[in-house]
Task: structure prediction
Amino acid sequence: MTSVLVKDLTLKFGALTVLDNLNIDIPEGEFLVLLGASGCGKSTLLNCIAGLLDPTDGEIHINDRNVTWEEPSGRGIGMVFQSYALYPQMTVEGNLSFGLKNARMDKAEIRKRVARAAEILQIEPLLHRKPAALSGGQRQRVAIGRALVRDVDVFLFDEPLSNLDAKLRADLRVEIKRLHHNLKNTMIYVTHDQVEAMTLADRIAIMKSGIIQQLDTPTEIYNRPVNKYVAGFIGSPEINFFEGAVEDGAFVTGDTQFTLAGYAFQGDAANVPAWLGIRPEHIMSGDAARDLPVSAEVQIDIVEPMGSDTLAWASLAGVPIRIRMDGQAAVSTGDSILIGFDPARASLFDKTTELRI
Amino acid sequence: MADVITPRGPKPRRRFSRTNIMLYGTLIVVAAYYALPLYVMIVTSLKGMPEIRIGNIFSPPVEITYQPWVKAWAEACTGINCEGLSRGFWNSVKILIPSVILSIAIASVNGYALANWKFKGSEVFFTILIVGAFIPYQVMLYPLVIILRELGLYGNVWGLVLVHTVFGMPILTLLFRNYFTSVPEELFKAARVDGAGFWGIYFRIMLPMSLPIFVVAIILQVTGIWNDFLFGVIYTKPADYPMTVQLNNIVNSVQGIKEYNVNMAATLLTGLVPLIIYFASGKLFVRGIAAGAVKG
Result:
């Protein structure tokens, strides 16, 4: 069953087109992440779904009901904001019950719902405090609670973890995932953090300039990006690109030639100018590289040890490349090592259209 | 060199450095410059006329008398009326209270709407309102007389209340709009998702957050309206003259002897309300002005 349906959504501010004819179909219970660099229109899209912005054109359906002209409160949504947006003069309890009081719900029911939300989020001891007396993590829990008490079908998150420090962010991320697992609501989550996107999402929509570039599962987006932008955006450290051309089952860049044996082309393999992308973690080194279809001897320029893994920089076919190695790998600047990769794990993009081939 | 001090901890500061002497010296001189007239007024108002005629205006009173204060409040004459300033005081109160409440109530809603409920042409509307603040009052005096006459409010206290409300609008709207603009937009969005409407958000979210700016507005309006002379003398009739107009009539009367002590007492009495307001709310005033100035 469709939970949220965005149909031909367009939003313009004067001459500036922020959202361009967007279509998304979100099934019930899905965790959808809208991912993109700042200014790509992901928050705008969320605000349109929430009813906080009027679209220039298009429709929004929630639970098979056209809510395009509905007020935010009449759409069956709850929203969590980046800055928490708690009402400063009300206690936590007041914050949680504000929406219910506006809906003229009876007091016993309000108490019941607040108690339930407080229990789920473990904020019971904080109910009588003001937001100013809470830490960032506690505030964001209250903000989530405010969406929770409304017992809505769809949760909207607008970069909810961006104001928190790294450790809290990781903790709350897991908690949001657990919350989704338990509640099984539809959730739409806006972020610019690809780790959040990869870990939380059932599906990710990668946006750029008001257009969805790719809408797919995290695995698919990571392994088979549809275009060069998506390939470069997802993955940290960033994917390595070689500029060249496909020529009869091989990729030619300068004097170097990589075989493309095993690469799954989208259609027939045409001989066209292209980009070849290979992720740093898909480049093997040492013994593991020996039997791979593509291998070469390179010299290490710089080593960045990060504990869990080590990032090495080298030069291949005249292009600086990143190689992700084991954290315990004993490499140092100036070493000469054998590296290699399997073309099946690479991605090829047409030079002019930048689309996957 | 045994007495070399190793720098450690807070850097020692000299209390009587040249900078400090300059700084405090200037401050003391300026403070005296402003305080001296006030001192002269208080001292004079506590002297009897014979003592004033000696001419030592800076000397403290030999014999303290409160008679001038009593006379200024209850007995001083303007024309044939000899009730003192008390009548003007109560007139001013009657003008002040509705003017302050009305102007702030309207301007705060204006500012809230302009900051949070942008409508087509709201920026133009705001600009026009602000331009209104730069039009000299003199231009509007006579047209206003005609408007008030047509409305049947000329010479009426409510006519003056209307004038004060209208003239307070540009600056107060600006004040409130800037304050409400500085309230995070997400708070407003959250309230909308929670189902609060225009008035719900205003009364339950915005109002409780904006005490400082309301204090600023009250101070501006109370002092402004209390000190007003021009509108008071033009738009009311003698029976409704505010305190400032009556003060002028007492002090500037050309007949009889000039009672300096009564004049001083009357002036101090008139200035008392703004003074009390400043002393009572100075801290809140500064905080509110600063809060409003964050975003424009």
Remarks:
- The interface with chain A takes residues 184, 186-187, 189-196, 200, 204-205, 208-209 of chain B (CB under 8 Å).
